[in-house]
Amino acid sequence: MEDMISRPALLQPHVRDELTSYLSELEADDPRALWHDERQRGLVSGVDQVFHFFFDDHDFDNSAVGYSLFDQVEVGSIEAVKARLEAILDVVGDADDDDFVSHPLWAEVRRAAAVASSRLKEAA
Q1: Rg of the Cα trace of the chain?
Q2: Are 82 and 110 in contact (CB under 8 A)?
């Protein structure tokens, strides 16, 4: 039986769960359908909510280690997602879901989200 590395418990595992959900949305072929369904159920959803979560509500920098992230590798993977989101924001500005998801740089957001999602799942 192979030895498993035991990780300490996170202080904010619910934030990690929410982060995992957002990454899943971002790596989807077209998150607009997911966001539309969530809005139909009365939830706040869409690219604006993504930005609030990643930039206003949480930093996901080194200070998140031990709280919602396990290590610097996870921090780096989330920083990559944020950088790609910011790259589109710099081009389209305060725009709607369609402007973001249809932008050619969205493919980079999807790739970064997939990498980050994979890293978080590996550590779970």
Answers
A1: 15
A2: no
